[in-house]
Structures are given as C-alpha cells and as structure tokens.
Amino acid sequence: MRVVPGGPVLVEGPIEVVGPDGTPTTCDRFVVALCTCGGTRIPPLCDSSHRRRRPRRDG
Predict the structure, then answer these.
(1) Neighbouring residues of 31: CB distance < 8 A, sequence distance ≥ 6
(2) According to the model, what pLDDT value does residue 59 have?
(3) How far apart are CA 45 and CA 32, in angstroms?
(4) Is 44 helix (H, G, I), strand (E, B) or coil?
(5) Among 54, 48, 44, 37, which Cα is nearest to 11's?
(6) pLDDT tens per residue across span 7-24
(7) Largest CA distance in the chain
(8) Residue 58 has what pLDDT?
(9) How many CB atoms lie within 10 A of CB 27?
(10) Which among 2, 3, 36, 42 has most CB atoms closer than 10 A?
(11) Which of 33, 32, 37 is nearest to 49 (CA)?
(12) What are the residues whose beta carbons fall under 8 Å from the beta carbon of 23, sequence distance 6 or more?
C-alpha cells in the first residue's frame, strides 16, 4: 500500500473493499487507487477528482 500525498491510496490488486453499508466493490486491476478526498464519483475508487478540486501549482 502506498499513500500519495494529496491523492489516493494505491493498493496492489486485485482487491475487494467492503463499504460502510456492507456493499462489496471488487477491482481486478494490477494497482487500485482508493479515494481519500471524498470527491470521486465512483467511491471507493479514485477518479482523479482531487486534481480538479485544488489549484495546480507550477514550479
């Protein structure tokens, strides 16, 4: 598992994540990105929404 500062948590797949309501989400990708910002449209998986939520720093 790897935590990306300001981004998702990366986990080696395949994985199954069980949500708070007991609903399982299965992903068979080699590396799975789990959302930590809460802005994703496909929870618990990251859809890169965190990139749109904060201003980009150049340099």
Answers:
(1) 10, 11, 12, 13
(2) 46
(3) 7
(4) coil
(5) 44
(6) 899 999 999 999 889 999
(7) 43
(8) 52
(9) 16
(10) 36
(11) 37
(12) none
